[in-house]
Specification:
Elements lengths: L3 E3 L12 H10 L4 E5 L14 H11 L3 E5 L3 H6 L1 H12 L3 E4 L2 H11 L1
Parallel strand pairs: 1-2, 2-3, 3-4
Length: 113
């Protein structure tokens, strides 16, 4: 069974500087997966040229902590082919997911068994 830490929408925006705090919270909770609402993402996070997403995801990957972003980013993926491709490729694996809502997250987790 996957142990999940649900980050709140309130709190410091998720960026490279705040990632360690969230990872520490996840380790303290003995979580396998951290779920972050898209409202918590730092300005520029979904602009891949800012490198914020890459830095955050790399830290989670280095520590073998899974990460899911929950919320509708359709408008952003429609406006950016690179973001759309990044989300598509991320969702193929197990390490990082972008899902529209909690139901979609639950479905992904159920499919894993």
């Amino acid at each position: 069974m996957t142990k999940i830490l649900f980050a709140t929408a309130e709190g410091p925006p998720l960026d490279a500087a705040t990632t360690n705090d969230l990872l520490g919270e996840a380790w303290g909770a003995e979580a396998d997966l951290v779920v972050v609402p898209v409202e918590r993402l730092a300005d520029g996070f979904l602009d891949l040229s800012s490198r914020i997403a890459g830095e955050v995801i790399q830290k989670f990957t280095n520590y073998r902590m899974r990460l899911a972003f929950v919320g509708d980013i359709t408008a952003r993926t429609k406006a950016s082919r690179s973001l759309r491709d990044f989300v598509f490729e991320s969702n193929k694996g197990r390490q990082v997911w972008f899902v529209n809502d909690r139901a979609a997250l639950d479905a992904r987790l159920a499919a894993e068994g």
